[in-house]
Write a structure and sequence with these properties.
single chain; alpha/beta; five-stranded parallel β-sheet; four-stranded mixed β-sheet
Length: about 325
């Protein structure tokens, strides 16, 4: 005699976490980020409660039980100034920074089991005509960055650049034009904001300083170079905002990190990659000096060279060791 099969049973859906539990977990995640916050603020201790907008943003993936996705514009290319860097390819600075980001995601997983990942939004091609670095050097840097992530086994990191948006067929100039035309803010609006908004003014000054330091082949007068750097700084800021808008369109739910100092209340969260003598220095504008006690810091090559001896890795200059 045939019998009917037993009815199919399905596991009960997971019970949603209480809002208080979600908030507590978000606070734990944010507390893991705060020791590495890149900021110009001083005199006020950082606590998760001081960042309500970021807590709300983290609540979306935490409540859904999904991995937290961070987007980080940066890792564009090496500075063209040989007094700052060891060459045009990633070195120990990038390797340590990538390891740090991957380890940070691992620490976040201890508080949020679905984990986290960082999408590195490599922006060299967005600015290459303005920062005067050849596109071929930027391709080589980005390809080496991907290889470094693979070779180091950094499974929580991804790289996103203009090739992922527009493919390989268009020229770099055409890709830059598309980004600028679609997303860049009006120049006069940006100039006005630079005059009235302190963080924007600091960003403008910082970019102008970098452009001035990196213009090693400029043939004109110092005043002409300063005018050129101020003009190009506005272009970099326009493209930076355009790149940010494009990233948001492609990663709409992501938590936005920044390699620039960010004040409390900003939509972005400034993040340090290593210890540095100022709040603006990054691995692509410097190199690593390793001290006798194992501490590593970022310095311009000229200074690191004075304090240490050069170390090679896989046949390429890597970093300096003090002593």
């Amino acid at each position: 005699m045939l019998t009917s099969p037993p009815p199919l049973t399905h596991p009960a859906p997971p019970r949603p976490e209480a809002p208080s539990d979600v908030r507590a977990r978000c606070a734990e995640v944010l507390a893991a980020l705060l020791p590495y916050r890149r900021t110009l603020d001083t005199g006020h201790p950082d606590t998760p409660d001081a960042f309500p907008a970021h807590l709300r943003q983290l609540a979306v993936p935490v409540a859904a039980g999904e991995p937290i996705v961070f987007t980080l514009p940066g890792f564009p290319c090496k500075s063209p100034n040989p007094a700052k860097v060891l060459g045009h390819l990633p070195d120990e600075g990038e390797r340590l920074a990538l390891r740090f980001l991957d380890a940070l995601c691992a620490r976040i997983a201890a508080h949020h089991p679905p984990g986290a990942r960082v999408v590195i939004c490599s922006d060299g091609h967005v600015f290459s005509d303005l920062i005067q670095v050849p596109d071929r050097d930027i391709d080589a840097y980005a390809d080496a960055l991907r290889a470094l992530i693979h070779d180091e086994g950094l499974t929580r990191l991804d790289v996103f650049d203009l090739r992922d948006v527009y493919g390989q067929r268009l020229s770099h100039d055409a890709k830059r034009s598309l980004v600028h035309e679609r997303y860049a803010p009006d120049l006069e609006t940006l100039r006005s904001l630079t005059r009235t908004d302190e963080p924007t003014r600091r960003l403008y000054q910082g970019i102008t300083r970098f452009l001035f330091e990196d213009s090693v082949a400029f043939a004109g007068t110092r005043s002409a170079l300063q005018r050129s750097c101020r003009r190009r700084a506005y272009g970099v800021m326009q493209r930076s905002r355009a790149w940010g808008e494009l990233i948001a369109a492609h990663h709409p739910e992501a938590f936005r990190l920044s390699i620039h100092p960010q004040p409390r209340g900003s939509a972005k969260f400034g993040i340090r990659l290593l210890e540095a003598p100022d709040a603006w220095l990054t691995p692509w504008h410097s190199c690593v000096l390793e001290h006798a006690d194992g501490r590593r810091e970022l310095l311009h090559r000229a200074e690191a060279e004075r304090l240490g001896r050069l170390v090679y890795r896989q046949g390429r200059p890597s970093h300096f060791v003090a002593g």
